[in-house]
Structure prediction request, 334 residues.
Amino acid sequence: MSRPITWKIDYDGIEKNFQEIKDFAVFTVEPPWQKCSGLFANAPKQVFLVQELEQRTLDEYVNSLHEVEYVVGVGGGTAVDAAKYVALKRNLKFITVPTVVSVNAYLTARAAVRNEGIVNYIGDKFPELVVVDLSIIRSAPPRLNRAGVGDVYSTRTALMDWGVARDRLQERYDLDTVGKAEDVLRRLVSSATDIHNVTEAGIKNLVALQADITALQWPYLQRGKKWPEEGTEHVFFYSLEKTTGRAFIHGETVGTGSVVSTYMHGADTGLVIKELDSFGLKFRPADNMISHEEFEKTIHNMKYVANEMKMHFPVLDDYRFTAEDIKELWRLLS
Ligand SMILES: [Zn+2]
Prediction:
């Protein structure tokens, strides 16, 4: 009943992949469009510089797009999600060209569309081709590329959440998926040096791992679940944005959430901190100018935010953060 993912991921870059593609429109942002535009053998029929993902803006794109064969998203999450939405609404072939691997929007079927600022996930539209241009991606800020580990690494704590949901809520638990997800984690950790140094191998491995975890999650997503990634560490991230009213680099603050969630599960926070450091991820509150007061409020708001977003993780139900817990977490993250 669940549909398979059919994208092809090609690592040979823009120049080679776009030799034969002539009839296309590009959705992109600046930078990186300036760096990429000269690599296309044929000029795009239209170029949209995407400013935001508000639905009425996206609908204007849908209406002003000429007849083309392909819609191409060139950039990070914003450019790619705009292209995804337009390709979906116009029922056109869709190609993604990630210029940074900080988020996995270039691989997923859902676009994060905003309605007066409230995010709605609309889909589904997978790209049929993902063009990975290693030299373009490597020219993005290293900090952003390293942030791409956050969602993959979230698997570690999400698997703990899944285990508790199995025990307390009789949630369906699939050993085969768990085994494959654990293998993704092992490969991520063993690639840490390359990811830290943003080498070609590091980028290739990170793309492959983002693809594998996206594919493992897809059957669950179709049933309204998010296993085997995106657990309580994401609740920390959502609570942080809600509590502070600021935007953060997703993968970095999901990493902060990984430490908080590991602590709640009574697991080895030292190991998690060591592994996050091995990727060079900026996950400490000070890296993102998060004050002690904001950190504390964020943690206390987690259960409320999870309820509001209709996410149920039983570990949050009966956990009471004491002043000692907050103090210890702050110490671990300082
Ligand atoms: Zn995420």
